[in-house]
Amino acid sequence: MRVALICRDKSGHLQTRMDNRAAHLAHIEASGVVESAGPLLNDKGEMAGSLVILLVEDLDVAKDWAANDPYAKAGLFEDVQIIEWKKVIG
Predict the structure, then answer these.
(1) What is the pTM for the complete model shown?
(2) Could you give the number of structural domains in the chain?
(3) Hey, which of 10, 38, 55, 62 has its CA 20 to 30 A from 87?
(4) Over the stretch 3-33, which tens digit does the pLDDT of each residue have?
């Protein structure tokens, strides 16, 4: 199943994102379940969140992946949505 993680950063936490970016990217690479990912941008063009598409067996695997993301462990996110997603185009 595909799962979309839509994560919005806490306001004023760009440095937290930057400090944990290498570990976050390593988590993506090591997990082998990320199909697509990239930052959400604010109106200034600055990173302000994340959109991650996971290809996993079930929602529990997605929740575990999200909980172990270095960004989440660093307290970066204000809000995280974990939603089953159906790929139609692309």
Answers:
(1) 0.93
(2) 1
(3) 10
(4) 999 999 999 999 999 999 999 999 999 999 9
